[in-house]
Amino acid sequence: MSSNEIFNRLTVLLDDNHARYRVIKHPTAGRSEEVAKIRGTQLGQGAKGLVCHVKGEGFRQYILAILPADQQADLFALAKQLGGTRASLASPKEVSELTQCVFGAIPPFSFHPDLKLVADPLLFERFDELAFNAGSLECSVILNTKDYHRIAQPELVNFRRTE
């Protein structure tokens, strides 16, 4: 599956569920701050996706963890809340296999049966719209926050760093 296929799958999902969203094509930007400027959005509106694996005694789960782009993840808190003892970021190869995307282009939706979707609750508390790369570093979606929550149905897990 290519990034184009991920984009198409995403827009079909959003259309089928009557989501309020718009697509923005833009030059590639490497950092969240740069892409927020290009999109005309606040940094905190960005939905940053981290592919992690959480492990523990007899427990192993791949996680797509979504949090606001102006926050940092606490992987230990993520592991603990999901029943594991440790968590780490997945390798670029694992990210590609599980999301069909490159780092930075992962939308906040899981299309893989082995990739569990979780989101930090702060994602839903500050902005009416979320912005994210949609399978490509040159294409973003700005989506109504309530529509994202309704369609994606992520498990809510507090895992942002608080210090």
From TrEMBL:
Coiled coil: none annotated. It comes from the Bacteria. It holds the Pfam family tRNA_edit. It comes from Photorhabdus temperata J3. CDD domains: YeaK (cd04336). This is YbaK/aminoacyl-tRNA synthetase-associated domain-containing protein. SUPFAM superfamilies: YbaK/ProRS associated domain. GO terms for molecular function: aminoacyl-tRNA deacylase activity. Residues 26-150 form the YbaK/aminoacyl-tRNA synthetase-associated domain. InterPro entries: PROXY, YbaK/aa-tRNA-synt-asso_dom_sf, YbaK/aa-tRNA-synth-assoc-dom.
